[in-house]
Specification:
By secondary structure, this protein is an all-alpha fold. It has helices at residues 2-20, 69-75. It has a domain at 39-76.
Length: 76
């Protein structure tokens, strides 16, 4: 009899502890991307998605061939 009371008491304690501790929320998915810092020879243009262009800038320019190259350097 004593053993059954101890077992019941232990099981109830475990049930209470598990009921009191809610499960942690799942990790949030972030849509924002952290852009890598720009290097001196990287194109300074932004893509339609808002990220920085990954191409190398044209010689004497801040932009790659697709984003204006030397023409863009004269405007900037």
């Amino acid at each position: 009899m004593n053993l059954s009371r101890i077992l019941i008491s232990a099981l109830m304690s475990i049930a209470l502890l598990s009921a009191q501790a809610p499960a942690p929320p799942p990790p949030a998915k972030t849509a924002a991307k952290k852009a890598a810092p720009a290097t001196a020879d990287q194109c300074m243009a932004k893509t339609k998605a808002g990220d920085q262009c990954k191409r190398k800038a044209s010689a004497g320019s801040k932009f790659c061939w697709q984003h204006g190259g030397k023409k863009a350097a004269k405007k900037a």
